[in-house]
Write a structure and sequence with these properties.
Elements (H helix, E strand, L loop, with lengths): L9 H17 L3 H16 L10 H14 L6 H19 L4 H17 L4 H19 L4 H16 L3 H18 L5 H16 L3 H19 L4 H16 L3 H19 L4 H7 L14
Amino acid sequence: MNKQGSGAGPNDRLGAWIGLAWALRLSGQFRDAQDVSQEALDFGRDPTTELGPEHLATLRSANGFTIVCRRIPGARAEALDLARNSFEISRRRYGPDHPDTLAIAISLANLLRTIGVQHHAEALELAEATVGLYPKAYGSEHPYNYGCMGNLALLRRITGDITGAHELDEKALAGLDARLGRQHHYSLTVATNLASDLAALNLPQEARALGEDTLAKLRSLLGDDHPATLQCAANLALDIMADGDEAAGKLLQDDTLGRYRRTQGSQFPDMVVIEAGGRLDPDFDPPPI
C-alpha cells in the first residue's frame, strides 16, 4: 500500500519492473532488458521513491542489471563495479547467507568469468564459497543449489579441473532431474555444460549423444531461435564434427550462426566465440523468491 492507503507502492512498482526485465532477458531480448533494468535501478536509487540504494528491492534491480550486462560486452566493466558494490552492501545489511546476498554473489562470479581469464581465480573462489552456503538458505535439495553447482562446475572446467567439473555437473544434473525433470531449462542448462565436460574429456560420441538429446528438448521447450537452444546447437556442431561427421556439423553450425544473425545481430558475443571455434558456456542465475 502507498501512503494514501491504496494502489501500488514504490516497492511493488519496482518489483514489477524487475520482473519485466527478467522476463525480457530470459526470452533473449537483451537490449530491451538492459534498458528496463536501468530504468528500474534508477527508480530504486531515486530518493523520492523512499527506497534508496540499500533497499532490498533496489539491490535486486542492480543484480538484474548486472546479469543482463554479461551479454553486452561494452557494459561489463560498469556492471562489475556495480556487482561488487551490491555484494558488499547486501552482505553488510542482510548477512552473507541471505538468499539475495547469495544471488548477487553468483551473478558476480558469473560476471567475473565472462569478463576474462584474469578474473577466473577470483570467480572460482567466490563460487566455491557461495555454493557452500546455499544449503543453509534453501535446504540441500533445492533446485537453486544444483543450478549454482552447475556454475561452479563450469568454472572448474575452464580453470583446468575437467574431471572435477564432470563429476559436479553429473551431481547437479541428477539433482535437477530428480526435482524438476529433464524437460526443465535449469536441467537442460547443466546438460549443455555436461556435454562440454565430455568433449573436454575427449569423449565426442558421448558429448554428441547428450547434446543431441538436449537440443531436441530445448527446441521443444523454448523454440529453435532461443539463445539457450542456439548455445546448445553451437556446441553440438563441434561435437558432431569431432565425432567424424564434418558435413553435418558444419551444416548445423552454419544454421546456428544464421539464426544468431537474424535474432541477435552479427556482433553478439556468442557469434564471436563460435566463429573463433570456441564453445559456449550457459550459466544460471537464481531468481528472487
